[in-house]
Design goal:
binds threonylcarbamoyladenylate, binds magnesium ion, alpha/beta, five-stranded parallel beta sheet, about 350 residues
Length: about 350
């Protein structure tokens, strides 16, 4: 692949400098690739209505062509030309959760290129809650197509350094707007079928959605450990967020988890393996051996979401052979965290 000159710009994350946002928007209008921060993870953006530009996204990431992209808008009104119709539920959800980490599926209009939807008749759209992202979209004057700005298969980037690690020389611009808040990709919700279905769990949780659409359900493949269940969202079928090391995730009572991880760590260390332990604030002092990193606090699970992908990348940097990770409860944001851990470990989840 031809090497692209990558321009890196640092932009103020609270009050983005207008001239810098305009520079990014100019790149988007020219059909170039611009990586930018959102409140969830960094996105790799291109003009969503320009097929040639969107093709470059797939090339830069090494992304399979059958995996559709999310269009990012800067206002609710922006969605009208992109969709066939908007249900009452969708109107209510957009008003309540946008801008924010909720992606909605709509029946697509003709205006949306097929490369965005990978040939599906639905299009995924969200309005990110980040001033840099919103400014970039608004000033580009078009929806921005953006997958997470990582190499396909790697953990999503939660800082500009992660983007640089994966995409330097492959994109035209990287906008550094600090570390992302949520740290996990948006919730993907399908409203186009009879039963509203969460296809990917995120920071807008099942519990949040139930208060508005009580009949909402979760796609079974999100958590269940079975190869028989085919995910409805194409992206969910790939091994994702994967560290270079093998990974085992332990679930159950915290005391049992700590005990079992200690036993396993001892065993792997006796085989001369470098062991990483993904612990929590509450347990990190109890292991005594291995490379121990606290991913966040069980009392504030948002911190675990915020740090998860960075922690996986840290273990890679330390070149551990195996990661032994504590799991979390399957409620609220815990569902999204466990979904990512399941994928990062290739389904190696052990009940204790
Ligand atoms: O938080 C996020 O959503 C980030 C930031 C950059 O906005 N973006 C992101 O995009 O995570 P990506 O491409 O890495 O993940 C999009 C997910 C994939 O699992 C994809 O299969 C699914 O959304 N998706 C997109 N369009 C779809 C559609 N029409 N039907 C079903 N799933 C769809
Ligand atoms: Mg992704």
């Amino acid at each position: 692949m031809e090497k692209i000159e990558t321009k890196i710009i640092k932009v103020n994350e609270i009050n983005p400098e207008e001239e810098l946002i305009l520079e990014g928007a100019k790149f988007i209008k020219e059909g170039k690739l611009v990586a930018f921060p959102t409140e969830t993870v960094y996105g790799l953006g291109a003009n969503g209505l320009n097929e040639e530009a969107v093709k470059e996204i797939f090339v830069a990431k090494g992304r399979p062509q059958d995996n559709p992209l999310i269009l990012h808008v800067s206002s609710i009104e922006d969605i009208r030309p992109l969709v066939k119709s908007v249900s009452k539920e969708a109107e209510i959800l957009m008003k309540k959760f946008w801008p924010g980490p909720l992606t909605l599926l709509f029946k697509k209009s003709k205006k949306v290129p097929n490369i965005i939807t990978a040939g599906l008749d639905t299009v995924a759209i969200r309005m990110p809650n980040n001033p840099i992202a919103l400014g970039l979209i608004k000033n580009s004057g078009m929806p921005i197509a953006a997958p997470s700005a990582n190499t396909s298969g790697k953990p999503s980037p939660t800082s500009a350094d992660h983007v640089i690690e994966d995409l330097y020389g492959k994109v035209h611009m990287i906008i550094d707007g600090g570390s992302t808040g949520v740290g996990l990709e948006s919730t993907v919700l399908d409203l186009t079928e009879e039963i509203p279905m969460i296809l990917r769990p995120g920071a807008i949780t099942l519990e949040d959605l139930q208060s508005i659409i009580p009949n909402v359900e979760e796609d079974l493949s999100i958590i269940k450990n079975s190869n028989d269940i085919v995910p409805k969202s194409p992206g969910q079928k790939y091994r994702h967020y994967a560290p270079k090391a093998d990974m085992l995730v332990f679930v159950g009572d915290v005391e049992n988890m700590v005990m079992e991880i200690k036993v396993q760590a001892k065993e792997f260390i006796s085989q001369e393996k470098t062991v990483g332990i993904m612990a929590t604030e509450e347990t990190k002092d109890r292991y005594g051996q291995g490379i121990i990193i606290s991913v966040g606090s069980r009392k504030n699970m948002e911190t675990i979401g915020h740090n998860l992908f960075n922690t996986i990348r840290l273990f890679d940097q330390k070149e551990v052979d195996i990661i032994l990770a504590e799991g979390v409860e399957l409620s609220y944001i815990g569902t999204a965290i466990m979904n990512r851990l399941k994928k990062a470990s290739g389904g190696n989840i052990i009940k204790v």
